[in-house]
Amino acid sequence: MSLSVDAESFAELAVDLHEVTTPAETVERIVEFAAQILDCVYAGVILVHEGSRVETVASDHDVVSQLDLIQWEAGEGPDLDLIADRPCVIVRDVRTETRWPTWCAAVDAAGVRSMIGARLSTTRQVLGSLNLYAHDVDAFGSHDLDVAHMLARHAAVALEAARGTEHLLRAIEARNLIGQAQGILMERHGLDAGQAFAVLRRHSQHTNVKLHVVARQLIETRSLPH
User: Fold this and answer.
1) End-to-end CA separation in angstroms for the chain
2) Which residues of the chain does CATH 3.30.450.40 include?
3) What is the CATH number of domain 168-221?
4) CATH for 3-165, among 3.40.980.10, 3.30.565.10, 3.30.450.40, 3.40.50.720?
5) In the sheet that 42-49 helps form, which strands lie side by side, from edge to edge?
6) What's the Cα-to-Cα distance from 37 to each of 5, 21, 49, 91, 132, rounded to whole Å?
7) DSSP of the chain, one letter per residue?
8) What are 154-190's pLDDT values in tens digits?
9) Would you call 81 exposed, middle or buried from its count of C-beta atoms within 10 A (0-12, 13-18, 19+)?
10) What is the distance between the alpha carbons of residues 44 and 57, in angstroms, rounded to a whole number?
11) Do 114 and 134 contact (CB within 8 A), yes or no?
12) Which of 10-14, 84-88, 99-103 has the highest mean pLDDT?
């Protein structure tokens, strides 16, 4: 694959990712693009949640999730190293690889002989990893690793932006729900906005339910939780 083709493809990816607004859509596009641009049989994305919990959030085959799960259960594998401190990793042959014997045996049993992975990270945080697998020994070269690294950087920036957009949309939705619930209480009980908000907050604290959930229940059922 020529560098000019890579540049054009990455430019198209950047535009494509700019048009999606959710993390789920973002990682799905990344997996699709990785499978197209690199000669791999499987591709997947792992994300880190809440600082430590990891999850396979997108893949083009069930075997990817199974191989990822083996890493978490065995406490060894390339993704654990990627998330911890490695920008990229390459496994040329799982039968001669010595770093992760339990994981390599499972990968070999699944018919996979080589893989590359790249960490999804920005200057602010580590988000996860992008992983590509092949049936053949030494299927990936240094150029493939460079492309995977570039793709992972694009993916990380897009994913961080999508997460920010999703959080913003959720915050706006929650505020709208609270506003609607305040309106119901104001009309029903002759309260002002501050008093209505105090009622919602009191019920939220009393029931240990988030404020926007209390508001949604009031809107849907016309009653507050007890």
Assistant:
1) 64
2) 3-165
3) 1.10.10.10
4) 3.30.450.40
5) 53-59, 42-49, 126-134, 114-121, 88-91
6) 10, 23, 28, 19, 11
7) --HHHHHHHHHHHHHHHHT--SHHHHHHHHHHHHHHHS--SEEEEEEEETTTEEEEEEESSHHHHHHHHHHHHHT-SHHHHHHHT-SEEEES-TTT--S-HHHHHHHHHTT--EEEEEEEE-SS-EEEEEEEEESSTT---HHHHHHHHHHHHHHHHHHHHHHHHHHHHHHHHHHHHHHHHHHHHHHHH---HHHHHHHHHHHHHHHT--HHHHHHHHHHHSS---
8) 888 888 877 765 555 566 667 777 888 888 888 888 8
9) middle
10) 8
11) yes
12) 99-103
- pLDDT tens for each residue of 111-148: 999 999 999 998 888 888 999 999 999 999 988 998 89
- 90 versus 221: the higher-pLDDT residue is 90
Residue 109 carries which side chain, given as an amino acid letter?
A
**What six digits make up the tokens of 35?**
């499978």
Read off the tokens for 40.
């791999």
CATH 1.10.10.10-classified regions of the chain? 168-221
Tokens matching residue 61: 């085959």
Cβ atoms of 135 and 111 within 8 Å: the answer is yes
Q: What is the pTM of this model?
A: 0.68
